[in-house]
Amino acid sequence: MTLRDIRVLFRQELSNDYTHSEIDNLLKITMDKECGKVFNSYELNTDIEIDKVDFQKIQKTLSLLKTKMPYQYIFGEADFYGLSFIVNEHTLIPRPETEELVELSIGKIKEKFGKRKFSVLDIGTGSGVISIIIKKHFPDADIIAVDISQQALAVARENALRHNTEIEFCEVDVLSENLNDNFDVIISNPPYIGLKEEKELSEIVRRYEPRHALFPLSEDDLIFYKRIALLAHNCLNDNGAILLEINQKWGKETCALFDGFAKSILIKDLSGNDRFVVVEK
């Protein structure tokens, strides 16, 4: 079996769900992850021979791809902000918009705290990617990352160990529990897709990503942001900052929840959608 033959096979089996360029990318990822071999787009259309053992691995992956399972779950890893993180069915696959949230957070932290030590609360940490990247950039920061899911926290702890970062992970339901500590920075990418928007999501997301991390599971789409605003009045230190990823449909409404603070601004993502709220106390 040649690489060209495998490319034809991938396109035959996956063309109903992916474009040719997406399929070629999936093949390159499969060859890298399963066979430890890196090929460019040109090489995919050549007579490079693939041995029987590697072909069996490729067939197994292809069968999973045909079910529309995201390749990040198939291989158990996702790239985020230049690093590789463990993910599974208990954690969201990190999105480019969240990389933008991290970038905003790093900039705001540098602006407000310089080289001074500070503390961070990460609400809804999931796989821990936000906290770990922040800790990588600010090794002296004290970070507490909370989530309602024990399974997600187990993944986050594995990721922290993988990237040699010391973070305190805690199982907390922020909608019902109070926080005893105070923080200089609160960062959150909480569940924000309204239940009425579920049909707008791709079948892949609906089938495989954890519902508790996607949807507030409440008739109130802004319930998490209202709770964060309430908590921040008590646990955010003076001169502190809040950085949030939000639902683009509720940009102005989300920002207005923080009118009682010194400053709150709505920021668009690279696609031009209302995506972030940055608050200062």
From TrEMBL:
Tell me the Gene Ontology biological-process terms attached to this UniProt entry: methylation
Family matches, as CDD domains: AdoMet_MTases
**Catalytic activity line of the entry:** L-glutaminyl-[peptide chain release factor] + S-adenosyl-L-methionine = N(5)-methyl-L-glutaminyl-[peptide chain release factor] + S-adenosyl-L-homocysteine + H(+)
Q: What class of enzyme is it?
A: transferase
**Which key words are in the record?**
Methyltransferase, S-adenosyl-L-methionine, Transferase
> Which InterPro entries is this protein grouped with?
DNA_methylase_N6_adenine_CS, HemK-like, N5-glutamine_MTase, RF_methyltr_PrmC, SAM-dependent_MTases_sf, Small_mtfrase_dom
**Which Enzyme Commission number(s) are listed?**
2.1.1.297
Q: Which residues form the Methyltransferase small domain?
A: 117-194
Q: Name one GO molecular function term.
A: nucleic acid binding
List the NCBIfam families hit by this protein, alphabetically: hemK_fam (TIGR00536), RF_mod_PrmC (TIGR03534)
| Record-given protein name | peptide chain release factor N(5)-glutamine methyltransferase
